[in-house]
Amino acid sequence: MEISVLGRVDYLPTYQAMQDYTSQRGPDTPDALWLCEHPSVFTQGLAGKADHLLVPGDIPVVQTNRGGQVTYHGPGQVMAYPLIDLRRAGYFVKEYVYRLEEAILRTLAHYGVTGHRVAGAPGIYVRLDDPYGHAPLAQRPQKGHISDKAPDFTGLGKIAALGVKVSHHCTYHGLALNVTMDLEPYNRINPCGYPGLPTVDLSTMGVSVDWNDVAQVLGDKLRAHLQP
């Protein structure tokens, strides 16, 4: 996997570049991982509903072909875009998403923060009153059990979001991990379609760390967990 740290780049050209890379790749094209951050932008997924955009104001809104609802990207957030040939890697989309989440969990653990999965709500969450405790969530995904209950985010904050696209077995889009951000724009939307869902970053959890440091750790974890 070729890892590229792009720095701060505009969203639309990056989105187009991911599509071009995916459409032009062949069976021998190497997998890649792009790490970057974007100027402020709201992105709307294929399932996105206009009423989840509350007051976007001066922040542009971009319609995309990824899964999921509306989210926010901005400075101080590590964007990770894995460009993976899943057929060559030997696993399917569900396993791919699990591996993405696992890389985020391991990255948070590197900084002493305990992340959690919530059944039915992709992404990674933290306990607001105990971000370092290891007690499992009752509503974590459990093998062989499918919950019919809506996710309960009481006491939780979302620290990382996922939104992926798979075209001809090849992935693009990816994940966002919040490091040190201005979180106000999340108040202008229903994050990922959930009204009132608190959104946090590592600095909220008391972790003061450089963007480049988190990008390096996350890149290493993704490279390890996305191996065939």
From TrEMBL:
Localization per Swiss-Prot or TrEMBL: Cytoplasm
A GO molecular function held by the record: lipoyl(octanoyl) transferase activity
GO cellular component terms, A-Z: cytoplasm
Stored SUPFAM superfamilies: Class II aaRS and biotin synthetases
Gene Ontology BP annotations: protein lipoylation
Reaction equation(s) it catalyzes: octanoyl-[ACP] + L-lysyl-[protein] = N(6)-octanoyl-L-lysyl-[protein] + holo-[ACP] + H(+)
Signal peptide stretch: none
Principal location class: cytoplasm
Pathway(s) of this molecule: Protein modification; protein lipoylation via endogenous pathway; protein N(6)-(lipoyl)lysine from octanoyl-[acyl-carrier-protein]: step 1/2
Cross-referenced Gene3D superfamilies: Bira Bifunctional Protein, Domain 2
Catalytic center residues: C192
Keyword list, A-Z: Acyltransferase, Cytoplasm, Transferase
Enzyme class, broadest EC rank: transferase
Similarity field: Belongs to the LipB family.
Note: In the reaction, the free carboxyl group of octanoic acid is attached via an amide linkage to the epsilon-amino group of a specific lysine residue of lipoyl domains of lipoate-dependent enzymes.
NCBIfam families: lipB (TIGR00214)
Protein name: Octanoyltransferase
Organism of this sequence: Hylemonella gracilis
Lineage of producing organism: Bacteria, Pseudomonadati, Pseudomonadota, Betaproteobacteria, Burkholderiales
Gene transcribed to yield this protein: lipB
